[in-house]
## 1
Amino acid sequence: KMAFYGESILPAGLRVLSTARITFEDDAGVCMAETEVAEAVSGKKLAEARITVMKPNDAHIARMFG
């Protein structure tokens, strides 16, 4: 079973426009990433991303994201 941990850390005054989720799996384990795109009052966009690692393998993660 896969789940996201933690809350969104978007600053006050922003609203989420869209969320993208990516899953990658091989013999080293499962990685899942989630990115939120938000819009500020001014209309400018910024992104906040967090990565949750299921069955972590440090060497594998370093190859993917390092």
Note: The beta strands are 15-26, 29-39, 45-54.
## 2
Amino acid sequence: MIVAVRLRAMRCDGRVARDRERWSRGYGVALLRKRESAQQATYVELFFDLVMVFALNRLLSSGVADLEVPGQAPADYLARWAGLGRTLLLFAPLLWTWTITAYLTARFDPRTPALQRSTLVAAFAVLIMGTSVPHAFDGAGGLSFALVYTLNQVGRLLIFVYIIGAHPLGRLYVRATVWLAVGGAFWILGGLTTGGAQVVLWILAVIVDFGAARLGWPLPRLGRGRQAVWEMAPHHLAERYQQLMLIALGETILAVGITFTTNKDRPGGYESLGLLTA
């Protein structure tokens, strides 16, 4: 009995040691795309794009509602332009979430379970962000939008920093994580406020997110550089863009078709023109 217990303990210790060595070498390196990796998008990526189109649809609906300000004269364009600006401000983090997700699935093999779980978590985050859009500037909705966005962006890159080990990509992910955390601080601070302060803080957050990426996420002793960021599977990324556009177009045609069929008037008005345009 004692011998069996000791043997089992030795096996467990050996397994732990092998796993520790495996992670120290960078388990995530095995997840990187290879030349023979398939270029087609996966069903998980398709699901993520569907959720993203839902969030964009919610954002568009909220933007249209802001343009139709109650009690405002048609000549008063100030409130309308403010609503358009808020819509563009919320579009930026959604676009950046999709971009980072597309980059990760173009750099790593999206058919591996680790990448599929990461993509599903990102889809869930986008779903929460989309439902928070209508109330993003009037209280709790803004905080939930900012928290989910920041946790998703920073959290998944932290995981990739850990699993990539000593691979040269580790420096890139450390730099990106730090700058996304800085931008996330502005997003969360903005979510805790309302009014003009919230808008200013979120504008600063967008500047940090996109500006740092444009400069190659520079950090002391870790350097900077953007070339390695875009060394990925170009055909896969092109298919992702095509897939997103097709889903968005299909959703638009469906919405116009429903509006057209539920209209009791005869065809010939603006609805027909919109259907033809779609």
Note: Residues 78-107 form the longest helix (30 residues).
